[in-house]
Structure formats: C-alpha cells, structure tokens
Amino acid sequence: MSTKTRMSLAAGVLAATVSTAGAQPDPVTVRASSAFDGRGRSVPDATVVVHGGKIVSVESGRSRPATYDLGGLTLLPGLIDTHVHLDTHFGKDGRATSQGETPAQSMLYEAENAYVTLMAGFTTVQSIGSPLDVDMRAAIARGIMPGPRLLTSIRPVNENTGTPEQIRAFVRKVKADGADLVKLFASKSSREGGGQTMTDEQIQAACGEAKAVGLRSWVHAHSPSSVRAATLAGCTTVTHGSQVTDMELRLMQQHATYFEPNIGLVSQNYLENKSRYFGIGNFNEEGFAFTEKGIPMKREMFRKALAVTGLKLLMGTDAGAGAHGRSAEEIIYRVQIAGQPARDALAGTTSINAQSLNLADRIGALAAGLDADLIAVDGNPLEDITALRRVVFVMKGGVVYKNVARSAHK
Description:
By secondary structure, the chain is of the alpha/beta class. It has two domains: 3-78 and 364-403, Roll (Urease, subunit C, domain 1); 79-356, Metal-dependent hydrolases (TIM Barrel, Alpha-Beta Barrel), CATH 3.20.20.140. It has 13 helices and 16 strands. It has helices spanning 3-22, 103-119, 132-142, 164-176, 200-212, 224-232, 246-254, 266-272, 274-277, 285-306, 328-336, 342-349, 351-356; strands at residues 28-36, 42-51, 54-60, 68-69, 74-77, 79-84, 122-127, 149-152, 156-157, 181-185, 216-221, 237-240, 258-260, 374-377, 391-396, 399-403. The strands form three sheets. Strands 1, 2, 3, 4, 5, 14, 15 and 16 form an eight-stranded mixed sheet that branches. The longest helix is centred in the C-terminal third of the chain and has 22 residues, at 285-306. The chain is globular. It starts with a helix and ends in a 7-residue tail after the last strand.
C-alpha cells in the first residue's frame, strides 16, 4: 500500500468516524444541477434531503437551503458492482499473488481495495469471494473502515466439493459461516476453454440448497451447457456466459435468471497487466491468447443479450488485481463500444443490481425511505458516460466520505 493511499485511508476513517458520531441531528440537503434516480427518471435542479442515514425526499427546485451545493454536477444513487474479488492485489514483488504475506498484510491490501472502490463511487459490492471478506465486511459495517457495503460468498463450490449431498452440507456450512450468497464454478475458466465442470446434479444440489437456506446463488459458467444447467436448476445469476447462444439468452429471460456478463474490464485488465499475471495458474501464453480472442466474442454476445427483451442484465466486473477502483470502465465500455443505452446501463448498475442482491428496499435508487447512498459526478452520464470517471462526492448511509467539489457545508 502506498504512503499516499495509507494517508488517504486514515483520513477517510477519521472523517467517517466524525460524521457517524454526529449522527446527523438535523436534515442534510444535497443539491445538484440534475439527478438520475436509478429507475429511469431524471430530476432537473435536484435536491435530495437526508436525515438519519435515510433519504427523506428527492425534489426538483430550490425551495430549501443546500448543505452541499454541488453546482453543475449530476447526482446518482451509489453505484453497485455485483462481482469483484476484493482480496486480490499486486503483492510486494508486483505480481498478482499474496504469496509470502502475513494475514495482516493481506487484510491491509483488501482495505486499500475497499477504499479506492468507495472513492470511485461504488457504495456496494459483492466480493466473490474470500474468507478475508468476513472481517472486512464487519469492519466496514461498524463504520471504522471506509469501504463499500460488502457482500461475500467466502468460499466457492466446484466439481471437487463432492457428491450432491456433500455439496448441500457445504452450502449449509458456508451459510453458518456468514456467507451472503453461494458461488459455483460450473465451468472451466475461459482461458481453458470454458467447458462445463460440475455435473447437472451438483449444480442442482448447490442452487437448490442455497434457496432452501435463504441464500442467492451466483454461477461461473462460460459454456452453453453450463449456462443451461444453471438456469434450469433455478440458480439466481449466471456470470460470464461468454459462449452463450440465442437459445441460452432466451432461456435465462424465460426463467427470470439474472445475467451478469463481464465484457469491458476484466479481460482488458489482464492484458494490460500481462507481466504481473503471467506464469500464475492458467495465465500462460495459451490462456492470454484465449483472453485476447474472447474480447470481441464477448462484445458480440452482449449485443445479442441486449436484443432479448426482458433479460435482466446486471453490471458486474469480475475486478481483480489492477482493476479495483476502475469498475466504471465496464459501464463505459458497454455504452461506448457495445451500444447499450446509457440510461439502461446506469439502471443496471443501480436499481437492477440492487434487486439481484435482494436489497432493492434499501439501495439502488434515489427514493424516500432508502439508505442515503448517493454520489455526484462531473458531467451528465446520460449524455457523456465517461462522467463516471469523475466522481467528486460520495455519501454512503448518510456519511460523506468524499467531497472534492465546491461545498456549502455548514
């Protein structure tokens, strides 16, 4: 962790602690030139009233004095990334590995990743998944560590977890350990061809038991057969799906399965940092060739997905080492390169993502009664999606963690 990041992290902890201690005895108003509410509605000359960590109202006009006057900026709900690996980082030797680190050092790297993610405007993330996430989630929830609201799968299920009954027992154990969801590796990595690895029966056991104990299920699946198996098993979400055909896309739509493709950041990040990944696991020449070839393939897959009316498309990045704090690049790529309308891409990053996490009653929109997660960006992302790179204000649960815009704070 750099000295600059450590200093920023410490400042963030102090600011959050001070803000939380104040507990907002009086309502706070945040004003901007416009707002996008996350559900498709734009609000001109927007004022959001916050009290007790909740949104009280979203208004158009200037009937109230502003606590934070954000001038020509645009307000949005806090952004949500449904797929990160918050523990992954470049270690002391600059490589994408934690080899040789103490547990404390690994935890500090995860704290750094949490911090830069929050500063980029992502107030909720789903980390899939590491045992380190459990303590990090608790520290963030206590308010002593600045970071996004954190959900985790802790440990994944794969073809080696065992028989269907052993898999059901694993799901019950991970639930007892505090997991928010169950992650399945139902296929190989795209760098290894993406073929199905778990049997249909194993997938059915994992997703069925997850549903029985009240957990969502997130399925890593590239091949058509693994996507079909996950969909027919009633799993909550399919992630990746790089090889899907129109048939699997329609099947997911028919079964109301969420689909989380990752097309604009993860592969590009691997290629940008090839020397830091090369030689680790399946990061070899053949694997990188698959990665490079897969970028246009995934882009065309996504364009097909856009044409399936009613398919519930999520915004997840699969962010690993080198990509933390850059989740907005996935959204920008979807809009600029793959042709998704900006309004739909933003809804997928806010209200639709919140629905997929069973948190739509708390986050994902600027609406009365929801948690006061809101950000401000320099520009209007409905007109220029790159405005998401220019986050200048971040509030999570009513606590301001970032404000580099001109402020009327009193």
